Structures are given as C-alpha cells and as structure tokens.
C-alpha cells in the first residue's frame, strides 16, 4: 500500500484572488507559522511601511506586518468580536483563491509523481496559470460552489510579550477601534 504524503502551499493574494507570493514544498505536517518563518516571506513583510500589513489566521503570530485575529478564549469584547468578523471576511479571499485553484486544477489533489522537483514545478505552474486566467478573463471562471473552501485553523499561535508584539497588539487595537 502506498503512503500518501502532502506538502504545504502557502500563499498570499490580493483582493482579486491573484497570488502575489507562494511558498511550495514544505511537508504537510509542518506548522503554518514555522513555514512562514522558514520561507523567507517574513523578511519581505518586515520591510512593509508601518501602515501596511497582511492578514493571517490564528496559526500565525501577531506582528506589525501580520495581523491575526484576537484569540477567542470565550471572553472577547464586542470590539474584538467585530474585528475578528471583519478580519475573517477579508481573509476569506485567500480561501476562495485556493478554492478556485483546486477547482481549475483538480489534479493537484493527487499528483502521482515521485520527483519533488517536478511536483514543485507543477504546483507553481498551476499558481501561475491561475493568475493568468484572472488577468485574461472578464470575471469568474469557476462556479462559486466549487470554489468555496473553509480553511482550517491550524491552532492558535501563542503570542510572546516582546516589544514588537506590544506594538503589533496596539496596532490591532487601533484597527479594531477604526472599524
């Protein structure tokens, strides 16, 4: 019996579902936050201006350039609940982007290949073609029903109390107050 292996495709996209950055090839058992740190994308995001950031789910650490939701310990304030709802709605675009990618390229669900270098090229090419389709069509080529995907939360990332984390927490509260 063949063992099935998985690999992580970590991606960032814009509001049109175009992938702006993808990381392919880490083992599927690796935690999202570890992939994030290991991939080099963190160094890119650290150079963002203070008023810019990307959104990540609760698996990712809160940073000034990476806004994650408030941890729901059952005692969230109405402000935090509202922030988390808006955050989730805005972050849903990446789930739709991955859903569209899987709907367009169904074979990605199971690649019967043994050469990792070719697997990486196939997955990367699918991401490129996904962007190509978005750039060269008027509207959505996928059925919304096929494209809907509920991204699993990979577990909450424990936040450390460093000065960077304090600044990131303050930024998140400012954003929540502005909503």
Automatic annotation (TrEMBL):
Biased composition, class Acidic residues, residue ranges: 140-162
GO molecular function: any one? metal ion binding
Give yes or no: UniProt keyword Hydrolase.
yes
Which region ranges are annotated with the description Disordered?
A: 140-169
Q: Name one GO cellular component term.
A: nucleus
Q: Report the InterPro entries cross-referenced here.
A: HARBI1-like (IPR045249), HARBI1_dom (IPR027806)
Cofactors: a divalent metal cation
Q: Where is the DDE Tnp4 domain?
A: 1-131
Q: What is its subcellular localisation? A: Nucleus
> Which keywords label this protein?
Hydrolase, Metal-binding, Nuclease, Nucleus
Main localization (coarse) = nucleus
A Pfam family that this protein carries is DDE_Tnp_4
Name the protein family.
Belongs to the HARBI1 family.
PANTHER family per UniProt = DDE TNP4 DOMAIN-CONTAINING PROTEIN, PTHR22930
> Could you tell me what this protein is called?
Putative transposase
- Source organism per UniProt: Ornithodoros turicata
């Amino acid at each position: 019996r063949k063992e099935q292996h998985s690999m992580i495709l970590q991606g960032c996209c814009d509001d049109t579902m175009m992938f702006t950055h993808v990381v392919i090839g880490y083992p599927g058992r690796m935690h999202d936050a570890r992939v994030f740190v290991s991939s080099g994308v963190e160094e890119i995001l650290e150079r963002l201006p203070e008023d810019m950031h990307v959104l990540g789910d609760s698996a990712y650490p809160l940073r000034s350039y990476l806004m994650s939701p408030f941890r729901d310990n059952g005692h969230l304030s109405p402000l935090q609940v509202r922030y988390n709802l808006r955050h989730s709605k805005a972050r849903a675009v990446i789930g739709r982007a991955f859903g569209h990618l899987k709907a367009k390229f169904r074979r990605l669900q199971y690649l019967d290949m043994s050469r990792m270098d070719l697997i990486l090229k196939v997955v990367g090419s699918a991401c490129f073609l996904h962007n190509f389709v978005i750039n060269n069509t008027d509207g959505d080529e996928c059925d919304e029903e096929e494209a809907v995907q509920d991204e699993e939360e990979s577990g909450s990332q424990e936040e450390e109390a460093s000065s960077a984390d304090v600044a990131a927490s303050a930024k998140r509260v400012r954003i929540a107050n502005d909503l």
